[in-house]
Amino acid sequence: MAGKTTSGARTRARELMLQALYQKQIAGHDCAELKKQFREQTAYQRVDQEFFEETFADICKRQDELEESIAGLIDRPLEQLDPVERGILLIGVFELQHRIDVPYRVVINEGVNLAKRFASIDGHKYINGCLDKAAQTLREPEVQAKGSG
Description:
Elements: H1 7-27, H2 31-39, H3 49-61, H4 63-71, H5 83-98, H6 104-118, H7 123-138, H8 140-147
Helix pairs in contact: 1-2, 1-3, 1-5, 3-5, 4-5, 5-6, 5-7, 6-7
């Protein structure tokens, strides 16, 4: 998938990233170990590998900063956040802050879809609210432009 990127491949990269972030939280594996492990999976061949590699590495490097941002969006202590929802928010907030090539609506939609697939029953509503709140601040000009058109 080196030169070809599809939205499906990017969605699958986010799914793989969520699994890696979940494993990092639950088992305490480090990022280099997880990248190596996930590269060896068959599913890795079907993802946007460049997006996975860059985004996962950046999330790992910026996790403390991202979690500070997330703490301002949620209604409970970060430690009480479900690990799946925490992983989705790490991906979503990172993309809102650092991947402005991805429209904010796509970031929110991808986060909601991940939550529908992997989180608790109403987790997608929580993710939607948190990422929408983040977008209002992190992508204010983009949100304002979409709202007035």
